[in-house]
Design brief:
alpha+beta, 3-stranded antiparallel beta sheet, elongated, 115 residues, 5 strands, single chain, 2 domains, two-stranded antiparallel sheet
């Protein structure tokens, strides 16, 4: 099967060509930066999200099956993520009063906003 023609990179100022989703100029650099970030961050288990958390998360989602933010906006979306109101790295706990059931879209928006 013939390969698809490369496209211009969409990163502002980059003159690279994108093949198979990787830019010839900034793609490899992004991978190196991401790998360094992942190394510093540690695994999920090292950050406290191992088996105990997975069981707690599953139980919480069974009790709270719908996204809290979507319900407040008049929408019904299934919750798939459990958000810590006060992040664990800032001393937050896994207690129910520090958790929110959110759809992935709302969770991404909340965590991207820094809290």
């Amino acid at each position: 099967m013939p390969q698809r023609a490369p496209t211009a990179c969409r990163t502002p100022g980059c003159a690279g060509l994108v093949r198979n989703g990787v830019c010839s100029r900034c793609g490899p650099l992004r991978r190196q930066v991401q790998a360094a970030h992942d190394e510093q961050r540690g695994t999920a288990a090292q950050r406290g999200y191992g088996g105990r958390w997975q069981r707690l998360r599953s139980a919480y989602l069974r009790r709270h099956p719908l996204c809290v933010h979507c319900l407040q906006a008049g929408r019904t979306e299934p919750a798939v993520d459990v958000h810590h109101i006060v992040p664990r790295r800032n001393g937050g706990s896994d207690a129910d009063d520090n958790l929110l059931a959110l759809c992935h879209s709302c969770h991404s928006r909340v965590t991207g906003a820094g809290g």
